Amino acid sequence: MNRLRASVLALSALALTLIGAGTSSAAHRGGAAAGTLVYAGASDPTYLDPALVSDGESFRITTQIFEGLVSLKPGTTNVIPALATSWKTSKDGKTWTFILRKKVKFHDGTPFNAAAVCFNFNRWYNFSGAFQDPGATFYYQSIFTGFHHNESNTLGPPLYRGCQAKGPYKALIFLTKRNGPFLPSLALQSFTMQSPTALQKYDADSAQIANGVFRPTGSYAFQHPTGTGPFKFGGWTVKEKVVLLRNNAYWGKKGRRSPTASTGSRSSTPSMPVAGRSRTSSSRRSSSAGRTRCRSTTTTRTRRSSCSSRPG
Question: What does pTM read for this prediction?
């Protein structure tokens, strides 16, 4: 319980740090194009599939792309609605009923509904092979303790038993026993909702252990992360930047800036082919679709990037 509480607090602080640091960075630069936010990160994310990471640099970015059923009130551990508007539990604490937010879509147009909720829970539950490595699914193993078919004697009996969609906007989650941390744990990025369409299309459940390190082999975690959040994935240039674009179809309050996370010279992503290693002092890229303009500059200590989105 103490470890979970510490993890939740750490992620809350992380989100607040991102907002504060990004805002001060934009203010400091002064000359940034309107509608652009630049945040300088310490390194690349590990992957952009939040179910498979546990590091702060990855969560800084996935927090903007993905949302869970519940969230935390900023600066607290109080659970508040997110993709679920309300919830209740049975008297024995083993059945949770979530009423879902209506008219929400993933960034690829896939509807968010009870079937999508069950798809995500069942995906985690049915992880096998490399995905049962603690380095891949640390938070799942910490909360749910085991999988449908455990492949290691270090895993325990699973907390999760099943999920049922009762119409499009009601999801029932069945547990094997009462569990106090279950609800607040769903605020962790590891348990956010991802597009079932994109997960299947881009081979999200393909991975291997290489030299003792977990490594996704599909393209989803690197090129196609797809959530419901206020920003959507715009691109990842390893050792340079990750670009996020404002989600104009977002169900909630629209983002005011399109953030670019620029990374330092060190990379924590051994599984990605390293691109763009040239030491060109500056480069520019423009796109007629959405009128997105980007600039990246390299100094001796860090690489800075900026993007601005303009109406087409």
Answer: 0.75
